[in-house]
Amino acid sequence: MKVYLCGPINGRSDDDCKGWREYAKERLPDTLDPMDRDYRGRELEPGIAKEIVENDKLDIQQSDALLVFYDKPSVGTSMEVYMAHGMGKRIVLVDKSGKPLSPWLMYHSHEVHKSLDEAIASLA
Q1: Cα–Cα distance between 77 and 6 in angstroms, integer?
Q2: Cβ–Cβ contacts within 10 Å for residue 34, how many?
Q3: H helix or E strand, kind and range, residue 51
Q4: Which residue has the higher pLDDT, 41 or 105?
Q5: In a 3-state reduction of DSSP, which class is residue 19?
Q6: What is the band of 31 on the pLDDT scale with cuts at 50, 70, 90?
Q7: Strand, coil or helix: what is 42?
Q8: Which residues contact 14 (CB under 8 A, 6 or more apart)?
Q9: Rounded to whole angstroms, how far apart are CA atoms 111 and 66?
């Protein structure tokens, strides 16, 4: 199963963006990681928005599932979840926010877990 690693990137530290993704990649055999194309700091350059979004959309199309790490609201993450759900992809969410989830996020997620290990086990 090919898993797209979905979660906030914009304005985040390396550890925030990469820590959980590297952990997941060590445990899942086939992943697609948008951090392989780290655009942080370049988001406002001409043409970059299209490149970011089109590459992420292509990864989602090629995936079977999304592993979503949710610790704070993110427009990009929400749009990726919505798009993937509409394409029939399996959405497995890790809720680390400590706050009530949006009904929209709950509705579009097939599973919600409190730990990354539980979510990974569900996808393995």
Answers
A1: 6
A2: 21
A3: helix 48-62
A4: 105
A5: helix
A6: very high
A7: coil
A8: none
A9: 11
Report residue 122 as tokens.
Answer: 């569900």
What are 40's two structure tokens? 């942080």
End-to-end CA gap in the chain? 8
Tell whether the model's pLDDT for residue 39 goes beyond 90.
Answer: no
**What letters, b where the CB count within 10 A reaches 16 and e where it falls short, cover 8-28?**
bbeebeeebbbebbeebbeeb
5: tokens are 């690693």
Instruction: Domains for the chain: give ranges and CATH numbers.
Output: 3-123 (3.40.50.450)
> Is the backbone of residue 72 left (phi > 0), alpha (psi -120 to 50) or beta?
beta
Q: How many angstroms separate the most distant Cα atoms in the chain?
A: 40
- Tokens found for residue 104: 């929209």
> Can you give the pTM of this predicted structure?
0.94
Alpha carbon distance 89, 27 (integer Å) = 20
Q: What integer pLDDT is reported at residue 12 of this predicted model?
A: 85
